[in-house]
Specification:
This protein is mainly α. It is built from five helices and no strands.
Length: 82
């Protein structure tokens, strides 16, 4: 994860705390492993997912909805695998 300020990474982790337990559990697993291997472009795609409302984000992670952006969907694929 070169190229990302450690303070910004902490902000991303903080923004990843959501209001839905099921989503929080997935994101905790994400930060415990796959997040550490993301490229800066993938982190940017993940950050854009954080702008979604919790219920929409959960529906996407659960496979009930998809996004048109292939970069975001690459992150969603990781989240769905957890």
């Amino acid at each position: 994860m070169t190229g990302y300020d450690p303070i910004e990474l902490k902000r991303i982790r903080w923004r990843s705390r959501r209001g839905l337990l099921e989503l929080d559990l997935v994101l905790e697993k994400f930060f415990a492993g796959p997040f550490e291997r993301l490229t800066p472009a993938e982190i940017d795609a993940y950050r854009s997912l954080l702008d979604l409302p919790d219920t929409d984000f959960l529906d996407i992670v659960n496979g009930k909805a998809d996004l048109e952006d292939p970069e975001q969907m690459a992150i969603v694929a990781i989240l769905r695998s957890l």
